[in-house]
Amino acid sequence: MIGKLLPWLTATDIPRPKPNAVEVELANVRKSYLTGAGEFVALKGIDLSVKNGEFVAVVGKSGNGKSTLINMITGIDRPTSGEVWVAGTAVHRLTENQIAVWRGRTVGVVFQFFQLLPTLTVMENVMLPMDFCNVYDRAERPERAMNLLNLVGVGDQADKVPANLSGGQQQRVAIARSLANDPPLLVADEPTGNLDPRTAEAVIELFRELTQDGKTILMVTHDEDLAHCAGRIVTVSEGRIVADGRGEGRYE
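Predicted structure:
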């Protein structure tokens, strides 16, 4: 199936990003949905700027717009109005085909429930984004996947299937997979929600190390303690950013 998709992927042109841009820039972003009860406004004029190398926690109660905000940044959903720029690309102007290719090369996503393919080995799961986007030579992909698995501390699990790993190990594999195409931006949606405190601490420490290496990380979390591990905390309430301040950058 991937082989059939590759000609379409490689033939899809993406506009050249503007130079020297901040990693994430949202300008007056509004998102509304039509429901049986009328219009529901999920985002109400969001302005947000995230610089390269920042570790930002996005917090707020359920249903207040956190996930919608993240979906704007990853291109999973489109704004009703306003502009979304990521790594110098106007995401709001991309076609559906362009967004699929752009996301595969630009954004790494880490899910709460890992989303690893159960029939593939750990190594194959990490190689999958490389295969899908065709961004590395086929002969280089196994070595790159192994290097990433070693980076997150699960290189010795490469030949196992996900079911044979602990939750913490599966999340580390998911992080390695998100790094497969060397994206500048990582978006993590409740990445520690299913982990014990000790494993959660290790994952947060890994995120901090990645930002020191130049990655930009946006992490959605309900955990206030984890949020304070980030360098910056953005609070979303009723579709608006109501607070934007510094985190403590540490875990206790």
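Summary: Residues 2-16+52-76+97-246 form a domain with the Rossmann fold fold (CATH 3.40.50.300).
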